Structure formats: structure tokens, C-alpha cells
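Hi, here's the filled form for the chain we discussed.

Project: internal
Contact: R.S.
Residues: 582
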Amino acid sequence: MTQLGAVDLEIIKASLSGIVQEMQNSLFRTGFSTIVRESQDASCAIMDTNADVIAQHVVLPLHMGAFPACGRAVLRAYGGDIVEGDAYLINHPYDGGSPHAPDMAVITPIFFAGELIGFCGSIAHKSDIGGPVPGSCSGQARETFNEGLHLPAVRYFRGGQRNVEIERIIAANSRTPELVLGDIRGQVGASRLGEQRVGELLAKFGKDNAQQSFNRLLELAEMKMKAAITEWTDGTFEGERFVDDDGIDLNVPVRIHVVVEKKVDQISFDFTGSADQTKGPANVRPPLVQAAVGYVLISLVDPHIFINSGILRSFEVKTREGSVLNPRFPASVNTYNATVHAMVEALFSALSHVIPARARADGCGSRSIIIGGRATSAGKSYVQYEIVGGGAGGRATKDGASGTSVNQSNAKIASIEIIESEFPTRIQRFELIRDSGGAGKYRGGLGLLREYVNLADARFSIRSSKHVIAPLGAQDGGPGRTGDLTINPGAADEKHLPTRYADYPLKAGDVFRLETPGGGGLGNPFEREPAAVLADVAQGYVSPERASSDYGVSIISDGRKWCLDDAATAQLRADSRNVGSG
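And the returned structure, exactly as it came back:
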């Protein structure tokens, strides 16, 4: 075997990246559901024969930990009996590594010259896989058996022949079988495309050189992370955040605590101080804990780093069995994302002492709304599943972005046109919420208001975060505004739902309003440039009243535009300094 040259290695690396991107594009373009087609709640990867990721297009960073766990479940079940043309399904969070059961993985082997050399994989959220509520994401689930159909690693294709019985089982357990099966078949198609492209790469460079490059790319990713970690300050650092509740015990916040120990090029993350596993579905499995740490390190070191499992080898993670971050089967996990956000923000808080130039305030967390019913003339079921962002936290040199996904949640907000054309609903308001971003030298991003009129009787569920505990500011920045979900706002039967809620009975004509949190601010608000505050007021991001109270900036109107009152601003800020010194 010849030694692989640096140029060839870079070509193979770029080719792998392009292959995964092409797989991803194929998956999105063939998606049946709005979840895949519009929100793009899916990821693709190429793995080696040990199921280590050698290339991933990161739409959803948590899948960096999920792919190896799912792939190894396939190897445990079928390792001695994998043939060309096979395809495997798995969505079991405990047998494999799916974040929750709606995230179904399709794993296919890559053969070259009759030898297994790796796997193609994709993980995509499914609109409905059964369970007590439409969308299969009950905020009150007490065990995984409340969360829909769970498949351990099962063979879906054998030598290119589809197992129709598997499809019949899935279809019988879904309220939207056509969408679910359509998306699964699209995942298989994306994998077949990946297999073909990897085969072409192997034919060009040779199997031995290609496999040598796979190993080298893993080594380089680990080396790059460790080299960056070596430059950081040695020491022990702690971070902590809380989740509103677990969906069952509504008045009990869920603690996430991390101790980071860093020495030379070694870094470890100890989460054993986090809360015990919860009754409700706020639990997170260890593969996602590892991926969340990897995501944070990538963000701090190089957001453009080539993604593979070598990154996960550069640090150690410790969790406690029976805790919210290492629950015992069959603890429920389906609204895990709020807990992951708390974990990520605790990590950023701890590491802000190590890398202050990358400090950031808390963001809006994540949320989805799920509406299910029967509205077609044929009486067929539908599931309207939407992912909605909010405000990002202020950063060390920039304001937080408004109306966006934050942290590990990269899914897109579906357009009004798509939602109204496919589901019995009308969106009558979609706007940024003024004053929702936390005050700071760098302001937090604004949350969103999205208000719907429901046109048919339906069942409504929400899984959200930060409706009780606000996104925290950093370095004297203020908190972001909390979120809210209101049924029939302003009416006699107005009702506010908790952060997690399952199966609220919506009637035709009911209005529901989702208000998402804003991001926390970073830095002293009275150090924000007055011109920046004036621009915020002019754009409707900040009210004149809050400009005065939060920023010490006086904004007045001359009847045509907003103007800065320099003298009043100087007095406001001088008064603030006098109060602070007193």
C-alpha cells in the first residue's frame, strides 16, 4: 500500500463532504412530509466499518453521536450477515442512538469489489409513528412505550429486495403512513446515491488508499481539537442551567450541571451533578450528551471543521446512571431537546471562563407545535408539525440574531404558504416581538409571534422551553423575554398552556398564539452605542421606553423619524453611574 499524499487526502476529504451534501439534497428534495421537505429535520453521514462517522453534513449536530450508536446496533444484530443491497431501520433510543423514536435512521452498507468498506446513513424525523397523540411527542409521556412504535435494528431491504412486511407494520402504526413511508424510501434513495458516489471515489483512488484516508481524517480531527484545547487555560470550571419542568412535575425545574476539567490537551466533562432521571420526557441518552459536547467544542474551535467521529475522541464525558442525562430504560425521552439546550448553555457558561472571546448569552431554546386531526373529504388523518425558533443570545462582538434556530437546533421555520396550503389552518400574524431581546452592550435577538386560526377540530400538542425560566444574559447583560402559548387570547375562554402539553382539544375557529423567547443580552446595556439603540428603535426592535430604562438612551420623535436626544442621554447615563457608585 502506498503512502497517501497530502493532496490526495484533501481531494478525498472534499469528495466525501460533497457526497454527503449530495445525499442531503436528495433527501430534502424527495421528502414527502413538511418536516423533511421544508423544516429539513434530517442529517446524512458516511461511516466506516466500525460505524464511526467519517463525514457528516451537519444540519443537526446531535446526529454526530446518534449515527455511531445506530450503526453499532446494526452491527450487533447483523454483523455476520450483511450483504450488498441491504438496508436497515432503527429508531430505538436505547437499542440504538436515535434522539427519540420519531427520528428514524436508515443504514445501508457500502460494498466495493465484494468487500464491506463502510455505511451510508440518514436520520430523519417522522410525522407520526403512533402513540397516544398525533405526532408521537406527548409532553406527558412517562415511559418510551407512550412514544409510539420502536424498532430495534431490523432489516428493511435484503440484497436489494424491500421487506413489505416491515412497511405494513410501520403503516399500521402511523396516522400518516404515506408520508412516513415516503420519507423512509427517500432516505433509502439518498443512501443508494451515497453508495454509488463512494464506489466511484474508491475506483478512482483505490480501496486501500481510501480506507487509509478515512483513518487519517479521524486522526486529524482529533489532533486539531486537542491542539486547540492545549492553548486554553488549565483549571476546573462549572456551569449550570435549569429546564422549566419535565411535563409531569410542572413546578420542579430540572437541573443540568457540568464540571469541566482541563489540563494540557486533556479535557473532561462531568455531568454527574445533574438531576435524577425525570418522570416526564425530559431525559437524554448518553450518545446525545457526547454529541452536545462535541457541538460546543466545534463552535469554540472552528465552526468549519470537517465533521467526523475523531472530534468525539478528543474529550471525555462522565454521566451518572439513573440521571436525566443517562436514564434507565424505559424512561421517556421524546421532548429531550429542551434538556440539550440547557446542557449546551451550561457548557458555554463554563467555557466562557476559558475562552472569553467566544462568550455568548442564552438563546431561545427550541419548540415544536403539533396539530393532528381528520380534515380531508376521505377522512384521512393529517399531522401539522412545525419547528419555530426565536432569539439568539448576544455574542462577544455582535448582537444575537432574531427569529432563528439556536444552538444544536438547525431546522427551518416552514413558510406560511406551505402551511396554509397543506393543513386546515390560517396564520394571521407572524412577526418579531418588540423588547423581547435581552438588553446588553450586544442585544439579544428577538423572539417570534406566530398566531393561527384553526379551521377544523383537532388535537394540539406543544413541546417547548423557557416559558418559565428566562434565557440568561451574560457579563451583566439582561435576560431575554420568556415564551408563551395562548389559546383564544383575549377571549372569555383564554387559556395558557404549560411549556410541555399534550392533546389539547382545539375546536374549529379557535385561535392559538405562540410567542417564542428572546435571547439574553451580553455586556452592560449602558455601554451600548446610542446610535445602535436609535437604530433598534427605528427598526421596531426596542421601544423608546425600554431604550430609556434599559439602555439609558433618550429617543424622541420629530413627527417624521426617531432622533437621539444627546443631552438627555448623557444625563440618564450619568445618573446611572452615580447610582452604581452609591
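Let me know if anything looks off before we file it.
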